Structure formats: structure tokens, C-alpha cells
TrEMBL record, chains A, B:
Record keywords, A-Z: FAD, Flavoprotein, Oxidoreductase, Redox-active center
Pfam families, A to Z: Pyr_redox_2, Pyr_redox_dim
Name assigned to this protein: NADPH-dependent 2,4-dienoyl-CoA reductase, sulfur reductase
Matching InterPro entries: FAD-bd_OxRdtase, FAD/NAD-bd_sf, FAD/NAD-binding_dom, FAD/NAD-linked_Rdtase_dimer_sf, Pyr_nucl-diS_OxRdtase_dimer
Length: 463, 463
């Protein structure tokens, strides 16, 4: 008689959880490791970041967003995926997970040796959004996306949309709704939308949004919703009502830690679950966590941060799975790289914004350099704005932002790798970057910005 | 009476020479430093890399390629630019430059305190190309470009073009001539064109060239030219003649060091002029050199290399000028980054190719990873092929190549910065790169390639 297999239970069947499950399976087969994954929704491993593009019909089919469906996990990976099962409790003493089968409406208890907590994040909801109103949508899961699409397709077809919140999701949804022909107002509490970049760069994004017809109401606080005939009719603000027959909430997310907290898993200062480099929950034997529910080390500030993003979830899940499978892998932390687009305008950021650098106690200079994505004389050359933030007096790069058209956003990666390696802006002026007229001026925008930062540092030192 | 100004003579009025002159002027005014620049051609500071796009009419006007004209240098920088003056001798003992005024046909001698040698490069010409033939063009200067354009516009309009040499210039010219409606054959002595990348990646380029109708004759040696009625009629090869009424030579360049050698300036093992980090010619007082005539340290191989490229010429000229002006600057070396496009196909490379790595004595693994430039489900997603070469067993990145469509080429910069900083492929798997569906799959192509390289290293270690 062979040994009894160990048992891994995965809480949350999206990027982090299923990446962990797959990697663990690659290293340990069914005879060694039984894997059960609970997912409260209808889907596994889909691209949440792709939802705005499905809403806009740029991506026409929902299933295009699904990276791997439950059948693939079941059949090819021998993972017992249980959809529509909401985990309601984790009993660390008895080493059991309690889950509710939402369709069968019954409770199941499953024992585990190893637990992978990947419950993701939940949308932030202010008081006024707590009571469900027809026509008001969060936008986090594929189920949320499906609900919004159904509402947009139903009669009477909504015509006036209000998006509350100008972060990535808000901005991308505003674009999607404009593309579907709706009148769109974006409400942002801060002075500019896209507060993931500094206000001067956010202003460029706001201008581009206005150019495609999005109305921006910045510095406006939402106070409530107005309902008529069982449907949303307006968003109420401190400055008066804004009519709406569809409302999308993009107010950000917080780590989904209720179960973890109840079970006694340690939370960090960011409010997300603490993990070590291997994605182990410290002090709790056999429990791992990854994805939008954990906090990560910010390599520039040295502080723990909560950065819910699919790219980290996938990496962290993979790391956890390799370790659960008996290998060795470590997650090295984040530097806050992100890219997005608003219609044709592209936005990239990495590292610290000015406010982050100040909060972390850095002294710094910041410069904004305008250049072009191609040689100035080359057809299609468009303005590219690069902002650099550098520690003074050391010159170490702390953060960078790019706003521009056509092939601008992904150039943030060049700066991200420089930042990752602790380069100074002076070092960066010598970087050997690719040059050809269709792709860059002979002085690359990154080099121009680095030179400008060196000059600003010298001027700041003279002062 | 004030002190007599020092005198800087610049040999060669293109990127390196004029960057040096401008930077020196920024730091020292006319009362301190008199600057004379000799240029044998008709232009200063133009984009040689842009010539193929002027040939194709993508850039319609010649003057769009001129970054700064002689009047600007004269009036705004107080630099005595003398066009059509070919320097014929440098007398280091008497500290004089001898030049020939090509239009006036007279010799001038000018004394200098400081000499900036920036004579650039000259096209490589095999024996069969030494005698001028009507309809056969080198392609290095703006004057060369003008001559080719005149030939293409004249009657009888040429219809069959042969490009000899499949490097950057050859490939870009082949594309330009196809775009002008000519039938184009590219002859390349090696097995694939674009030997600036490894043959497996060059094959992808060759396929794309064939797709736009360029005939490729690889592994073919040219033996001569056939002339009829005072015009070129065919290119003769070891495999028979190829009819041609216009021939473009793209056989590369060598450093233009004849004058330097005659004056006793030291040449390095690459055949180009030796310089130190500040672009000073070692052992020769007050003489500086920069641009296509000097050799540079390759930061990966540690060897001196000759890499004639505008981006280095500009950086080196700037460094020399800052130093001549009394400041401090150093050129940190090159890593061989380059990008180009062949119709819509984009090609990027950095670091060592397999053959370079082997020649430099490295043991290495190389991997080729196929991915996409956008999320696989996003409209416009196209294949992107990333090749990585990593030292074994250390895992240090030695070189990288990218071939793909739409936003592929400049992603080489991400790898260039990783290489610049001596990252291992294992480190690279954790890089925080920008992710959004329009710009990358959730696993960026760079990360996928790095993971594959880690696996290859592990497999190589097990063997």
C-alpha cells in the first residue's frame, strides 16, 4: 500500500491560485499531492485586465479572456476545481476549509495539509454604494463584466454613463463606454484623473480624455445615487446631480483578507497578508498566500505595499507553487511598473511618484523632458513626455513616468530595469539604447530625460 | 590686451565633430576658444540613418534629415564651419591641419592647440567596385543619397535594382527601392541577410523580405560589374550575372583613419583609433577623437570594437566636447544595441551574438521563445520572437535579439539595460515590467524568454 497523498487546498481560482496549483502539479503528481481549488465565481484564470476591452467590443467574445478553463485544469492538471464554492472559513487547528456550494446551497468541509490563500481583492465601496441599485456596476470580475454588458445591451439602451473613480479601471471603462457610443462623465475626487502618475502627467491624460469626448469632473465628491423606477437615474455629488442610466464604480480594491484575518493569518501595515520571499505566510505552518490579497516589498521605498496586478499575481502564484512542489523560488518584490492606454494616449509609470518619494523620506529632483517617439522628421513622430524623479544628491533613479502616443507606454520597461538595478541618472546618460529613425531620435527620449535630470541635480547642488 | 584665444580644429563636421564643437562652445566662449570645423561634404550634422527613408520618399525632403545646418553653427555657436574642405594632412609637430578647399582648389593650413578628429568612416569597396560605374552607388553620405535619388528620377528610369550586402543599410535600401516600385535583388555573401543577428533570427528577416517581394540571393559572391553604354547592366556573381540598372553597395564601412595613421595617432586592434574614457587619444597631447573613426570598449566581451553608429557618435562627441570645454565626462562603452525595420518587421539586438560569445571565449546557452506583442486575445496581437544568450553556469545575460511586428524593436532596450547591469536570466524572471492587454501578455515576452533560459541552464548543468 502506497503512502497517502498530501492535500493542497487553494482558496481562489484565479491567476495566483491556479498558477500555484499548476506549478505544484508540475513537480508533484497526483500520487503525491491531491489539489482542490475553490472558486466562488464561474471562471478560472481569466484576464481581468481585459474586461474593459470586452465591454468595448474590441475583444468580442468573453471566452477570449479565459486563459485556462476549469476543464483544462481538471483534465490536464488533475486539479479538482470547484466553481461556485465560496470559502466561508479556515480552521487552522483542525486544518480544514469550510466552503459553501452556492448552487447546491450546502456546506462542505475539506481537510488540507497545505493551504494556498489566493482570495484576491474586493472592490472598495463607499457607504452610498453599499445598497445594490439596478444599473450600478462594480468592475472586478468577469461576472461583473457580463452584468454590465447585459445592461448595455438591454432595452431601454442606456445613453448616459457615469464612471466614478479615475484610476486604471475607471479610465479604461470610460474609454470603453465612449467607444460604445455612450455619453460619458468621469468623476474623480482628486484634482486630475489617473492619480497613478503625478498631477502634471495626469493633466496630459485628462486632456486626451477630453479630446475623445469624455467629460471630466475632477475634485468632485460623490454623495449618493438617485433611483427612479427601480433603475439608477443620477449620481449625486457635492456639486449637484449628474444624470446617469448606467454607473460604473472604479474606486479601487482592497485585499480580500476577511477569512485570513479570522483564521489568524498575519496582516502587514498595508492591510494585506504578510508573506516572506517564498510566499509563505510567516509563523503559520504550511500556509502560503499570493496575488491581490498579499503585500509586496517595494524595492525602491523599502516599504510593504499592496499592488493588486495580474502580473504580480501570476509571478507570486508561480513562486508559491514551485515552493509547494518542493523547488525553490523567491519573489523579489515590486517597483510599481504599470502601463495603460486612454484611446490612443499611452501611459507608463514605474517606481515612486513625487508624493511617494516625499512620503518615503527621499530628497529628490524631478524633471519633465519632451521629445518624440521617432526621429522628429519621420512620419508619425509624436510628442513623448518623460518624467524622471531622482534622489539628491546621489542621483539614483526613484521613479519615472511616460505619456505619449504610439509606442510610448512599454518604453517604461527600459526605465523600470534601470530603476530595478539602482542606476543613477548620470549612469543612464550613457546607456546603449536602440536607435533608428522609425523608433527614436538619435538622442533617445530616455537619454534626453536623464541628461536633464543630471543638470537639475547639478543646479540643486549649487543652490 | 586680453589673452589670445585657444584654437580647436575639428576634422569632420558630422555628428561626433559638431557635437564636440557645440559642447565645447557651451563651456568656453569665443574669447577663450576659437573653433574651426572642416567638412569635405556639403552638409553638417545630418541623419545618415535617415537616408534610406528619403530614398523611399517616406521622408520627402532632404533638408528634413539635417539636424543643424552650417549657418546655425556659425551664427548661434560661433563655429567657423568650412564646407567642401577636405583635410589632407595633420602635422602634430607644427600643430597644423592642412586642408584642400575643393571648390576653390587651393590648400589652407590652420594652426591648432586642440584637435578633434571625427573623420568618420569610409565604405568598404572590394576590388570590383573601385572603378566608378554610372548607376552604382555607395550609401554613406547625404551626397550619396542625392546621387542615387537623381539616378532613380532620371530617364530612362531604372527598373531592376541590385543591393549588394545584407547589413542594415543594404536591407533598408532594399526596402526603399521596393517601395519605389523597382524589382529588387539582395545579394548577401553569408547564408542569411541581417548577419547582425544570429542566422536563426536572420531567417525570419529573410522570410519577411521575400514576403514584400525582395529576391534574396544568399551565399553568393559578387565578382564584378557588367557595363553597357556607359551604365551598369548587371552584377556578375560566381553563379552568373544578375541584370541591374541600378546597384547599391551596402558592404559596411571601415574607420576613416588614413590621416590619423599618417599623423601617428595610435590605432587599436579593431583598426580604429584608440581613445580613453574621455575620448582623448592616449599619448598624444591635446588630440581627441570620436565617432565612426574610433573604437569602443564592448562592455560584455571586454574587447575593443568598431561600432559605427550615430547614437555612439553623438554621445562620444558630446563627451569629448565637455572635456575640451573643461568639464568632465566619460563614455562608458557600448553593448551593441541596434534596431531596424524591414517593411513591417522589426528587428532589435543587443550584446553578443552566438558567434561573438564563442569568439570571446564564453560558454553559453541560447534559447528562442515565441510569444506575442499584446495579450494573445487582443486585436493586432502578432508573434514576437525573443532570443537570449546566457553565460553558463553563471546565467549572466550575454546577448539578446528580438524579431517581431508592431512595437517589437524598441523592446530590445529592456534587455539592453538588463545586460548593461550584468543581470542573470534568473534575476530577470522577477522583473517588474509593464502589463496591460494592448501592450503585453501577462507574462511579458522578455520574462517568458528569461524563464526558458533558466530552464536551459538547469538542463545544461544536469548534463
Amino acid at each position: 500500500m502506497g503512502a497517502v497523498a498530501e492535500r493542497l487546498i487553494v482558496v481562489g481560482g484565479d491567476a495566483a491560485g491556479m498558477a500555484a496549483a499548476s506549478q505544484a502539479r508540475r513537480r508533484r503528481d497526483r500520487a503525491e499531492l491531491e489539489i482542490v481549488a475553490f472558486e466562488r465565481g464561474h471562471f478560472t484564470s481569466y484576464s481581468a485586465c481585459g474586461i474593459p476591452y470586452w465591454i468595448s467590443d474590441v475583444v468580442p467574445e468573453r471566452d477570449q479572456l479565459i486563459a485556462r478553463d476549469p476543464e483544462t485544469f481538471r483534465n490536464s492538471f488533475d486539479i479538482d476545481v470547484r466553481l461556485r464554492h465560496e470559502v466561508t472559513g479556515i480552521d487552522l487547528d483542525r486544518r480544514e476549509v469550510i466552503a459553501r456550494d452556492l448552487d447546491g446551497d450546502r456546506e462542505v468541509r475539506e481537510p488540507f495539509d497545505t493551504l494556498m490563500y489566493a482570495a484576491g481583492a474586493v472592490p472598495i465601496k463607499p457607504d452610498w454604494a453599499r445598497t445594490p441599485v439596478n444599473g450600478v456596476f462594480g468592475m472586478q470580475t468577469l461576472d461583473d463584466g457580463a452584468a454590465l454588458r447585459d445592461w448595455l445591451d438591454a432595452e431601454p439602451a442606456p445613453r448616459e454613463a457615469v464612471v466614478v473613480g479615475g484610476g486604471y479601471i475607471g479610465v479604461e471603462l470610460a474609454e470603453a463606454l465612449v467607444q460604445r457610443g455612450l455619453t460619458v462623465t468621469l468623476i474623480e475626487q482628486a484634482d486630475t484623473p489617473m492619480s497613478t502618475v503625478d498631477a502634471d502627467m495626469g493633466q496630459l491624460v485628462a486632456d486626451a480624455m477630453r479630446d475623445v469626448g469624455i467629460r471630466i469632473r475632477a475634485g468632485v465628491r460623490v454623495t449618493g445615487l438617485d433611483e427612479r423606477d427601480g433603475r439608477v437615474a443620477a449620481v449625486l455629488t457635492a456639486e449637484g446631480p449628474i444624470p446617469a442610466d448606467v454607473v460604473v464604480l472604479g474606486l479601487g480594491v482592497r485585499p480580500n483578507v476577511a477569512l485570513a484575518e479570522a483564521a489568524g493569518l498575519p496582516l502587514g501595515p498595508s492591510g494585506a497578508i504578510r508573506v516572506d520571499r517564498r510566499m509563505r505566510v510567516p509563523g503559520v505552518d504550511g500556509v502560503w498566500a499570493a496575488g491581490d490579497c498579499v503585500e509586496s516589498l517595494h524595492r525602491v521605498s523599502g516599504l510593504p505595499v499592496h499592488v493588486p496586478l495580474g502580473t504580480h499575481a501570476n509571478k507570486q502564484g508561480r513562486v508559491a507553487g514551485i515552493n509547494i512542489g518542493g523547488g525553490y523560488a523567491a519573489f523579489p518584490g515590486v517597483i510599481g511598473t504599470a502601463v495603460t492606454k486612454v484611446c490612443d494616449l499611452e501611459v507608463g509609470r514605474t517606481g515612486l511618484r513625487e508624493r511617494d518619494a516625499a512620503a518615503a523620506g527621499f530628497e529628490f529632483v524631478s524633471v519633465v523632458a519632451e521629445s518624440t517617439n521617432r526621429a522628429g522628421y519621420f512620419p508619425g513622430a509624436r510628442k513623448m513626455t518623460v518624467k524622471l524623479i531622482a534622489e539628491r544628491p546621489s542621483g539614483r533613479l526613484l521613479g519615472a513616468q511616460i505619456v505619449g502616443w504610439s509606442e510610448a507606454a512599454k518604453r517604461i520597461d527600459t526605465l523600470a530595469v534601470a530603476l530595478w538595478n539602482g542606476m543613477t541618472v548620470d549612469d543612464m546618460t550613457g546607456l546603449d539604447l536602440g536607435y533608428a529613425p522609425p523608433y527614436a531620435p538619435v538622442w533617445d527620449p530616455v537619454l534626453i530625460a536623464a541628461r536633464k535630470a543630471v543638470e537639475a541635480l547639478a543646479a540643486a547642488t549649487r543652490d
